[in-house]
Amino acid sequence: MRSSRHFRRPGEVAITVDGRLVHGFPGESLATLLLAAGLDVFRIGAEGKPRGLYCNMGSCSECMVDLVLEDGRRRPMRACLVTIGDAMVVERRAGSDG
Ligand code: FES
Q1: What is the rounded radius of gyration, in angstroms, for the C-alpha atoms of the chain?
Q2: CATH number for the segment(s) 13-92
Q3: Is 96 near ligand 1, meaning CB less than 6 Å away?
Q4: 35 lines ligand 1 (CB under 6 A)
């Protein structure tokens, strides 16, 4: 849940996560947006176990997701290090080890 008591937030941005439109605020990390949307599983590891935010500083790779580029290629990214932008397309990963 986002705190809203002491902050004046800029207008929302919308990104697509697994085909679903999710709203966040400029400057937020992708990890923050996913958690605020109730999406705490960022990928499924090779052993079939759910993985999510762990270090929140780019060290562990537990938060790997795919950024889908305009040409359809996928770029693996650490959700905790990515600042969201309008119209981003993200897919959570299945069956990967980072
Ligand atoms: S949570 Fe560890 S790299 Fe993102």
Answers
A1: 13
A2: 3.10.20.440
A3: no
A4: no
